[in-house]
């Protein structure tokens, strides 16, 4: 029991301090708004596409309605060998729009699609997003304005999930919000650990000067490997854009199987991490979730272990609530869901960590 007590106290204390550190980082970020609309930055927006026919019309409308000057914007769709009508729909919907380009992936997978887009891009500022996302009209303007004011080498923006009020979708929404909160907080603290390629911008020259910056040997992680390399090359020049106009929304996974496959895909890239901040964060998260499962399971054989479980549950939940509610007032309406999510969270975290060791997963009709 003394060893267990030490592990419980250590994992709980370290996790609590880490989340409070992210909370302080979030508080350091300043709200940003566009003040000067006399833009000068050529922007290339790259959108990899695979089997997104149901999202194409809305995606193109949203990009077409952006308030950034068309003379400074090029939009590059890269079709990653879609099996549906995505290529045809894009071609039909962008007909006559001179600053919209459709091309096919020179390789296979999202990373190669991004590389294909970069080879066709001419803008100084590269922005990436996903084909299933929705964007406010001032989204590109906000990134460009921030770039012109502060000249960062990389900018990350918030990504939130939409919800159709389905219970599973709402649980995903809150879980994803916690990821976004940790992302923003780590940026604010000066030690970014992750970002999301659905809402990312970076200086093209940095990419051009270095080969395989996204580590194409891994099927996932175009965004996080880029972040890690940029931390090495441009320390202190990576920013998080805190603005409502920088928020991108996307859809959750339709079912539990898709959700687990997505998380295994995300976790599988961790074998390639070399960034110490990300490694430590991942280990702390894995440790406290493993301890939660261990103490709960052990309580069936040794009732005294239930006290340890309750302690860990409380010390994990309270700072998590503090961080997530600081990011989004929406969460307060669904506060009652958080305790339920905290019970589910350790199971899937430990499971996906173990499942990712093989690296095997399926995604969008492909097996890796």
Task: Give an account of the 3D structure.
- The protein is of the alpha/beta class and 368 residues long.
- It has two domains: 109 residues, no CATH class; 223 residues, Alpha-Beta Complex (Spore Coat Polysaccharide Biosynthesis Protein SpsA, Chain A), CATH 3.90.550.10.
- The strands form three sheets. A seven-stranded mixed β-sheet has the order 3-2-1-4-7-5-8, with helices on both faces. It has a two-stranded parallel sheet with strand order 6-9.
- Helix 1 crosses helix 10 and helix 10 packs across helix 11.
- It is globular and about 70 Å long.
- 43% of the residues are buried.
- The model has no long low-confidence stretch (mean pLDDT 89).
Provide tags for this entry.
368 residues; Spore Coat Polysaccharide Biosynthesis Protein SpsA, Chain A; 11 strands; 12 helices; alpha/beta
Beta-strand percent range: 5-15%
- By CATH, the architecture of the largest domain is named Alpha-Beta Complex
- Helix proportion: 40-55%
What summary fits the major beta sheet? 7 strands, mixed
Q: Please identify the structural class as seen in this structure.
A: alpha/beta
